[in-house]
Amino acid sequence: MKYVFITILAVTLFNINPAAGQPQVYSIGIVFTDLVDQETLPLHLKEQHPTIVKTINQEIRQLFSDLNRFRTLHLQSSGEADDPLYHGAQSVDYIAHFTLSKAYKTYHNQILYYYDGEDERLQFDDGGPSKNSSYEVISLPAIIGQITVKLVNPRRNKIFWSDLRDSSAVIPYNQQLFLRNAWKYPGGSHPGLVRAFLADILRLQMANPSVERALNVSERWFVSDPSDDVEVAKGLLQGLAANLAADIDANLPLEGRIKTLLPEREGKPHVQLNIGGQHGLVPKMRLQVLRPEPSEQKVGQLEVVEIDSTTAIARLRKLDKKLRKHGEGLQLQDRVISPKRPLRKSL
After folding, report:
1. How far is Cα 282 from Cα 263, in angstroms, rounded to an integer?
2. How many CB atoms lie within 10 A of CB 33?
3. pLDDT tens track for 235-292
4. Using an 8 Å Cβ cutoff, are 254 and 340 in contact?
5. Whose CA is closest to 151, among 99, 91, 96?
6. What SS3 state is found at 320?
7. Pairing mode, if any, of strands 158-170 and 220-222?
8. What H or E segment, with its residue span, contains residue 196?
9. Region 253-338: CATH code
10. Are 123 and 149 in contact (CB under 8 A)?
């Protein structure tokens, strides 16, 4: 008991705080909404869709884990997609709502130009064929994905940041494996290829007008292996989720504490903070200062003047009038908060 008492006394007298070297840990409620119409997907993508969604969810959780200042919880939502009701919102500081709005197979058209006397085929992004050339339109299999995210403050029931990421990727294909346009050249493809691939292509045509337009004007429809479809879809969507990390980090608050009161420089109070460059601080960044909870009293504003990886030096830029009137100033363990920060170059 004597040793326990001594430890408690040391913590009280010397402000030893085991968590003082870390930024404030916020609780984030993660909501994931899947709006993809799975009935429009090829059968193999429809079967793998739940696995792909699970993989994206894992990527999102890892995203917040890597930021090293968030505790994640899964929340459920109900109601309209544009005005959802979040269940359990009272138990989190913020909500990150991700929506998978697009994830489907499509076809992108490409023009190949053929030159007289040459076997070489060239594609041009601008300009047309020369007088001695002809061209062919081909359709290449591709995946399109789109993910949106919005950050919500549940206390105010307000969206304070949102963004959308979308992309497409051509699926690897065999240049020798294709179907002739079934409408222009009925019977022009090998029966085995027709049995293996035509049903899925027709399914895409009926589900997506843009696929129908692309295939109707092309001469050849290249096909892809189902396993390649799945891998490209998974990689594309994981990449979209990961691409949101820097923006999410920059738009969620970063909170630390005043670790040490330093001597004045040029007549200005200076302090050392328990957060630094690895948390997203940069020189000249301005931070709000509040007294610890439950007071939440506004103290003033700091400006960062020096940083290293885990700490920073900041000078007092503004002090609340009431505190100045009573001769008070910054204190150890005052909260320093950056609501938004510049985008970090790497995470």
Report:
1. 22
2. 13
3. 999 999 999 998 999 999 999 999 999 999 999 999 999 999 888 899 999 999 999 9
4. no
5. 96
6. coil
7. unpaired
8. none
9. 2.40.10.340
10. no
Report the relative pairing of strands 286-290 and 268-273 from DSSP bridges: unpaired
Instruction: Give 343's DSSP letter.
Output: P
Retrieve residue 186's tokens.
């009925």
| SS3 state at 230 | helix
Give the DSSP letter string of 57-112.
Answer: HHHHHHHHHHHTSEEEEE-EEEEETTEEEEETGGG-SEEEEEEEEEEEEEEEEEEE
Pull the structure tokens for residue 287.
Answer: 């931070």
Between CA 108 and CA 168 the distance in angstroms is 10
Amino acid letter, 110: Q
The list of the chain residues with pLDDT below 50 reads 1-16, 18-19, 122-130, 346-347
Which residues, other chains included, contact 125 with Cβ-Cβ below 8 Å and sequence gap of 6+?
none
- Number of residues written out for the chain: 347
Domains of the chain: which residue ranges? Answer: 26-249, 253-338
Is the torsion defined by CA of 89, 91, 92, 97 positive or negative? negative
User: What are 95's strand-pairing partners?
Assistant: 29, 152
User: If we measure between CA atoms, which residue out of 27, 29, 19, 98 comes closest to residue 69?
Assistant: 27
Between vectors from CA 163 to CA 159 and to CA 167, what angle results, nearest 5°? Answer: 155
Q: How far apart are CA 36 and CA 30, in angstroms?
A: 19
Distance of alpha carbon 168 from alpha carbon 123, whole angstroms: 19
Whether the bond into 42 is cis, omega within 30 of 0: no
Q: Which residue has the tokens 């879809």?
A: 233
Q: Cα angle at 254 between 252 and 255, to 5 degrees? A: 140
Which amino acid is located at 67 in the chain?
Answer: L
